[in-house]
Amino acid sequence: MFVSPRKAGRGVFLPEEFVVPTLVAGPRFQIRPITVSDVVKDYGAVIGSLDRLAGRFGPEWGWPDSEFTFEQALIDVAWLQKEGQLRRSFSYVVITPDGERQLGRIHVAPSDSPDADAVVVFWVRADEENSSLEKELEEFVREWATTAWPFETVRFPGREGLR
């Protein structure tokens, strides 16, 4: 069972010498670690996708709440940034190449199941659902998680049967 990075309470799950990816640029999107400076765009992406995200993450994560506020978003993003600094889990924003629009997020976290080293969860904003961008991002994330990271086995909760 997948446990939210917020609820995991784990230590470091990567070798100390591993250099965590900080920027990946492509023709249709970039990914980089989330920071508190992303809160305005992130809040917009979350609020615009509230129903979709609540259906995806639901009560297991307790996120996002139907009355998700900007203050909660700031705390959430700051927490995700700190988790990355502590090397406990890693969250990335998916943005347009010009950095003007947030398209979604990617989360890399330790697995609580012995059959995987990590879990990777990602989402795109509701207006990109089922788009070619979402399919392109999924292909990228699946390859990136198994080639750029030191994991042998990665789970993709909510997407195992999809391809």
Automatic annotation (TrEMBL):
| InterPro entries (UniProt xref) | Acyl_CoA_acyltransferase
Q: Which SUPFAM superfamilies does the UniProt entry name for this protein?
A: Acyl-CoA N-acyltransferases (Nat)
- Which domain of life, per UniProt? Bacteria
Q: What is this protein called?
A: GNAT family N-acetyltransferase
